[in-house]
Amino acid sequence: MRHLLCLVLLVQALLALPVTAQDCVNPNVQPPTAAWPQNAIVWVYAGNVPASLHNSIRTVLNTWNGSAGHPGNDSGVYFEFTTNTTTMDYSGGSVVNGGAYIIQLKYQVPPTGAVFGGTVGQSYEGSRVNALIWINPGITENTAFRHTLSHEIGHTFGLDECYSCTGAWQSVMVGGNPAGGMNDPYYGATEPTSCDLETIKNNKGYTYPSCDSYYYLQCKESGAGNLWDFTRCLCVNMRDPGNAPVTGTRNCWTNTYETQRRVGVCTYYLRIIDTYCGGVGFNHVEYVEDLICEEIG
Fold it and tell me: In angstroms, rounded to a whole number, what is the distance separating the alpha carbons of residues 205 and 216?
C-alpha cells in the first residue's frame, strides 16, 4: 500500500512539472481579428465569481501581464482587475451591451455547450474589443480555476485549442479533462508556454512595443491618478483637467494640447483633442483657434 501511495504521488509530481520550451506544442489559431489590438489595456470584471477565487484571477492576469513584453508575446496588452460587474451579456447567440476593452467574467455553465469554460466577444476594425468568459461553477479548486481562466484568456489572444498536443502541459490551450473531474489540480497548464506566446505574436503580428512595459509599470506605480498612454509613450496625469476621463466611459481619457502648423504662407494655431481607450487612439479632433497669413506684395 505504501508503494502504491508513493507511485501516485510521483505521478502527480511529474504532472505538476512545468513544460520546457522543447516540450511545448504550437496551438491552433483563430483569425487575427479574435486578438486584442497592440498595446490595449483591458479591464477584467469579476462579476459573480466568488471572492474566494479573486486571488486566482489576479494570479492569472499577472502571469499574462508578465508575458506582454519581450521576450513574450510582444503584444503590450495588459489586464487590470476590478471586483465590479457590467451589463455585458449573451442573448440569442450574440453579445449584448458589450463595452470597449473589457472582459466580463461569469461564474455559470457556458451556454455555448462547452464544459469547463467558454469565450465569446466582439471585434472592431480588425481586432477584438471585448470578451465574455464563462467559468463552470463546478470549478471551485484554485489551481483548476486558474487553468480554465488562463485557457480562456488564451482565446482572447486569438488562440484556438491545441489539437496536436499529446500532453496536458504542452500548451495552456489544452482543455480540461472531464474524466478527471472539474477540480483536478494536476491536469493542464496555468500559464502560457513559450509556444503559446510565439503563436500569439506570429498570428496577430505583434511587434515589440516601443513603449516598454517597464515604463508602463513605473507610470502605474507612480500614482493613482496616472495612466500610461502607449500610443504616445506618455504617462498621463488624470488629475490634469486637460486629461480628464471621458464621461460615461471606463479606461478612456483625452489628451488636449496646442500646436501650430505651417501651410504655404499661413500659420494655423490648433487645439488638438485626442481620445484614447485602453491606450489605443479612439478619436482625433483639431480646432483652428487662429490663422495668420503673410502679406504677399
Answer: 21
In CATH, which of 3.90.25.10, 3.40.390.10, 3.50.50.60, 2.60.40.10 is domain 2-204?
A: 3.40.390.10
List CB contacts of 41: < 8 A, sequence separation 6 or more: 77, 78, 79, 80, 101, 227, 228, 230, 251, 278, 279
Q: What pLDDT shows up at residue 36? A: 95
* Ordered strands of the 266-277 beta sheet: 252-263, 266-277, 280-293
d(CA 170, CA 251) in angstroms, rounded, equals: 35
Q: How far apart are CA 266 and CA 216, in angstroms?
A: 39
- The domains of the chain are located at 2-204, 234-293
pLDDT for 212 equals 54
- End-to-end Cα, the chain, rounded Å: 106
Cis peptide upstream of residue 71 (ω within 30 degrees of 0): yes
Q: Note the pTM of the prediction, 2 decimals.
A: 0.69
Q: How many residues does the chain have?
A: 297
**DSSP code for 19:** P
Evaluate whether 177 touches 184 at the Cβ level (below 8 Å). yes
Angle (CA) 125-255-87 rounded to 5° is 55
